[in-house]
Task: structure prediction
Amino acid sequence: FSEARLAYLRSLEIEPAQPIGWAALASIDNALGDVVGYIQNYDRAMEFDRQDPELPGSVAWRLLTLDLVEEAQPYIEQVRTMAPGSTELRDLEMERAAARGDYLLLGRLARQMIIDDVPNRNGLYARAAGYCVEAALARGSLPEAMEFLNAEIPNFADPYREGVESKSALAREWVEFYLVDTYSAEEKAVVSRQFDDYNARFGEEATL
Result:
């Protein structure tokens, strides 16, 4: 990482107005566990590009993973200004609800993602399916949530067989992640075998 970081720094010394370069530095800082450097370098990137919602969206996402909801809020608002109603904004709002433990809102936002059949970019569709279950477990409404997922996600009951879109299988994997603590040892073994078989057939594409 150090050599790559130095190369980007030299490039930015010559031409600082490179949002991609600052974002690349931020990614290196993130990999090194330097959250402050990550945010500072993304802030520099945003100085030179005030049109790309992915820049503030990336910072908001990272802060939400640390449960720093209030700190994430200004960046979420930047995304809202740049891309109102976008899938990226909706994703951040869902993650914010999860970080806050607002399970009523989380369930509503996650279900709408499934209904709208959003793309699975960055695992969005699969995460939404998982959050449907997390919210339902918290609110004591799991049977109704599973009925909803079975109705909305194609082949949700049997997503690991040949010919089924991987999006459905990935959604099921996220759901199982939240359900696993409710399973008996035998049920866990069955799910584990299903995952192993599916991942053996489809490789990294099938992983979360």
In short: The longest helix spans residues 185-202. The mean pLDDT is 89. Residues 1 and 31 are 9 Å apart (CA to CA).
